[in-house]
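Reopening: Carbonic anhydrase/acetyltransferase-like protein (Isoleucine patch superfamily) still failing for me.
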Amino acid sequence: MRFEHLGAQPRIHPEAVVAPTAVVSGDVRIGPGCQVLHGAVVTGEGGAITLGENVIVMENALIRATSVNPVHIGSHVLVGPMASISGATIADEVFLATGTRVFNGARIGERSEVRINAVVHLRTVLPPETVVPIGWVAVGDPVQILSPDRHDEIWAAQRELDFPGYVFGLDRDTPDLMVQLTERYAASLARHSGDRRLD
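Support: Ran it again with your exact input. Result attached.
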């Protein structure tokens, strides 16, 4: 399914294949040889998304751009089932395994691997050919790659990256943080009320 969002329509190369149950919305460019499988969502939420050549977006994966953080995915990239990319830059020949999470402002270098259920956190930079092991967390620039049992170290680095401030423009110490966050985000997402289905 293709949707016009905020006046922008997807541009899908004729040699790309998008499954009928996938959703492609807004300012999205899908290059030749790309495959977007069933249940995947590729949505430009006020920002652009570019998929290079021969990108495979597997079942139920989510790729989301924001007005602050567009998404650029290079060529020959595999985005595994149930993976999530939000506002990140992915270089060529990257493997993002099942269930991986890549957050806003992250940059993943060429030929890197983010293995099953691993996380690349907000504004984290992975140099080329980096491997994030199964279930581990990559955080910061320069990057630290930590096992999930090292929560205190992950949180120390993550806190400095300031997720609510960077993504939502809110101070983490705001007393009603979740009230303000959800109201702002809901207002932003309500812009979909004017979307127009194209197929």
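The mean pLDDT is 95. If you still see a failure, please send the error message rather than a screenshot.
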